Amino acid sequence: MKPWVATVLLAASLATAAQAGGPVVVVEEPEPEVEEGAASSKGLLPWLILPLVACVVFCGAEEE
Questions:
Q1: Secondary structure element (H or E) that encloses residue 11, with its range
Q2: DSSP letter string over 39-56?
Q3: 19 in the Ramachandran plot: left (φ > 0), alpha (ψ -120 to 50) or beta?
Q4: CB neighbourhood size of 52 (10 A)
Q5: Angle CA(10)–CA(16)–CA(20) in degrees, nearest 5?
Q6: 20 CB-contact burial (10 Å; exposed 0-12 / middle 13-18 / buried 19+)
Q7: Over 20-36, what HEC string results?
């Protein structure tokens, strides 16, 4: 009985390993396109920093 059980278990383990998985399909993804931002967004940062600098100068700690 033991050789028969061993043969069945061996066949079952070999059959599952042989049937596992499937075809491997490799799909190459296209490279993402990099677009430059609008020209209007380049001049926005100085306009945001200017009020900050003005506030630091005028609202800074006063000397007593």
A1: helix 2-19
A2: GGGTTHHHHHHHHHHHHH
A3: alpha
A4: 9
A5: 150
A6: exposed
A7: CCCCCCCCCCCCCCCCC
**H or E stretch covering 16:** helix 2-19
Q: What is the DSSP letter of 56?
A: H
Per-residue CA distances from 57 to 32, 60, 62 (Å)? 44, 6, 10
Structure tokens that stand for 33 in this block: 């396109």
Q: Tens digit of pLDDT for each residue in 28-58? A: 999 989 887 666 556 777 788 888 888 888 8
In this prediction, residues 3-11 reach a mean pLDDT of 87
User: pTM (2 decimals)?
Assistant: 0.31
Position 5, amino acid: V
